[in-house]
Design a protein that fits this description.
Number of strands: 8
Order of helices and strands: EHEHEHEHHEHEHEHHEH
Strand order of the largest sheet: 2-1-3-4
Distance between the termini: 59 Å
Oligomer: single chain
Low-confidence stretches: 1-10, 277-292
Structural class: alpha/beta
CATH architecture of the largest domain: 3-Layer(aba) Sandwich
Helix content: 40-55%
């Protein structure tokens, strides 16, 4: 199978020239080159948006004997690249131009010819970035002072996929925190002050949890015989967690045997069905005297 390498003895060099990140062109080149049993080298020229930029690239392509694959949309820049490539004997492949023109003909409209549209930064993009940063700051019970700003809060005993679920939900744009339930320690009061519709209690089949915890201890080279993996203690932890969830009206999610994506989708469906667009933090159930 063909692989990209930086070795100067590669049989072929491909330049990807883009007015954005170059990801689209790079993916297309890799998909094409996998069909050939030749070693090859890939070089990406990002944010190429001026005539002087493309002239420099084509000059380098001539020196390297490279094939040029470009995904530019600005008409004058494309024309300059093609002229320069023709003058220097460089083969240039227009990745998007023919497709854009076919679409324009079909829709009977003029394309925008605006560079960088494919990877433009929308409000949704920045919302997801904020959500991921929030999830990182509020992982494993951290920064409880600002936990009330979360869209969703996950809680459960150790190894119930709280962190993976938090990060996946954050990538979907939901500010997510998670709070562990630790044997012998009262849950933090901040957890009880949240709108109960925002809190999701994670449960799991005892056998599955025992298996996951045992694997965790092996990976840490820790003693295998502890309360952490004692079947009776695990059953007790799970029972206490379920009682807590019922007491405070938190929705329970059984994560047994399902992928993170499936569990996240279930949480999102429940969240949207109860809160919809109303993302204000309402009052929760006050904690009992002396903790839960």
């Amino acid at each position: 199978m063909a692989t990209a390498s930086d070795d100067v003895r590669n049989d072929m060099t491909v330049f990807v020239v883009s007015d954005g990140t170059g990801d689209t062109g790079s993916a297309a080149v890799r998909a094409a080159m996998i069909q050939f049993r030749h070693r090859w080298r890939l070089r990406v020229f990002r944010d190429t948006r001026s005539i002087s930029d493309v002239r420099r690239v084509i000059e380098q392509a001539e020196q390297a004997g490279a094939l040029v694959v470009f995904s530019l949309v600005e008409g004058d820049v494309v024309a300059a690249l093609l002229r320069e490539a023709d003058a220097r004997g460089v083969v240039a492949v227009d990745l998007l131009g023919p497709l854009i023109m076919r679409v324009a003909q079909r829709l009977k409209v003029e394309p925008r010819h605006q560079p960088g549209l494919l990877h433009g930064f929308s409000d949704d993009y920045f919302d997801r970035v904020d959500a991921v940063e929030f999830a990182v700051r509020h992982d494993d019970g951290a920064n409880l002072r600002t936990l009330h700003e979360a869209d969703i809060v996950l809680t459960g005993v150790s190894r119930t996929s709280k962190t993976p679920l938090s990060m996946y939900l954050a990538q979907r744009g939901y500010k997510t925190g998670n709070v562990p339930l630790v044997p012998g320690i009262d849950p933090p009061k901040e957890l009880f002050e949240l709108d109960k519709r925002r809190v999701f209690g994670l449960t799991v089949d005892p056998a599955t949890l025992l298996s996951v915890r045992a694997a965790r201890l092996r990976s840490m080279r820790a003693p295998s015989s502890t309360d952490y993996t004692d079947p009776d203690q695990v059953m007790l932890e799970l029972d206490r967690a379920r009682k807590l969830f019922r007491r405070y009206g938190w929705q329970q999610i059984d994560v047994s045997g399902r992928a993170v994506e499936e569990n996240a989708s279930k949480i999102i469906d429940l969240y949207e069905s109860t809160l919809g667009e109303g993302r204000g933090n309402g009052p929760g159930v006050p904690p009992p005297p002396g903790g839960a």
